[in-house]
Amino acid sequence: MDATYDDDIIRPTAAWGAVLSMALCVAMLIASEFMPVSLLTPMAEGLHATEGQTGQAISISGLFAVAASMMITTLAGTLNRKWVMVAMTAFMLFSLMLVAAAPNFAVLMIGRALLGICIGGFWALATAVIMRLVPAQDVPRALALMYGGQAIAAAFAAPIGSYLGGILGWRAVFWALTPVVAINLVWHVVALPSLPARQKQDFRTMFALLKRPYFRRGLAACMLSWGSAFTMFTYLRPFLEKVTGVDVTTLSVLLLLLGCSGFIGTWAASRFLKGNLAPFLKLPALVMGGATVGLLLLGFSVVAAALFMAIWGAMNTMFSVIWMTWMSQNADDAPEAAGSLMVAAIQASILLGAVVGGLLLDSFSIQATFIGSIVLAVLAFVLIGNGQRMLKPKAA
Question: Which of 150, 182, 329, 381 is the most buried (most CB within 10 A)?
């Protein structure tokens, strides 16, 4: 049942089961997309590539996610959004199987490209779908619940992946994800209500959004913030191994701490993100950039690294809810088009972060990669200011 208010039909029952199904899909997407972070070293060794090259497995998924996010609402046309989401989950399942069985680096990249299509398609529609599953006043809460899947993935995927990768090999980790994604696929079919396309989207709607100065500024700030985060996060394992000097067990514990801290961010998002969002927009760049500075200066200490990773992890989950809530409030007249642009911007930032971070790592040092992340965070903070210029002008 569509749980919002359509043009002339009142559907007051929120489809929370469908929201939970979306949350599981988020968890699996995050786990699938960023699992190479926790397995970067063994994957590089197994595929006879450098760590910087293997980091591009994240870049390639980002590249295809950008393309998919820009095209999905146009290509999907008038297709029922329920079945589009089901198809995206099926792509994720096939991608995991390809990656797990990859005999060489080329096949790995093909599998990651397919995952990118899933990422772009899912995220472009996700917020618009959530806006139809619950009443308008419950959208921030539903988004926080959906991004709870991100916290779960961050809490358990990376540390378990790192630990199991050390015991069973990195391929076994990707195979282990496939049955969960298969269950999620069935859950989508059962729980998601029929979601007929309300109107056919095209690129003109996106261009119209980009003509709005507040939306352009918000999109640029969002890109800088995400670029900063993933320039650092993609290469966190090499930093912890080379600078902090951790072994696989300690690495797994630190990644578990980072992930579990995400539950604090999810709770804070559902508790505090109400009313005026302007003061919250600069928090991700400020807090996560500050944590990266702390790691750069004090990361030789395991205790200090644990502290700053916990701070980073808590803000990481709140990060997504802040910006997607901003989108739902400031582009509520074109949520699918806005979702496409947001996802394209975010994935482009992740892609560039992984590419630039990899180049800095291979050409200079891991410290150079972290410095690049800090520079992007500073630029985001300066652009956002007090956040008011990112908000839709109030009607007179």
Answer: 150
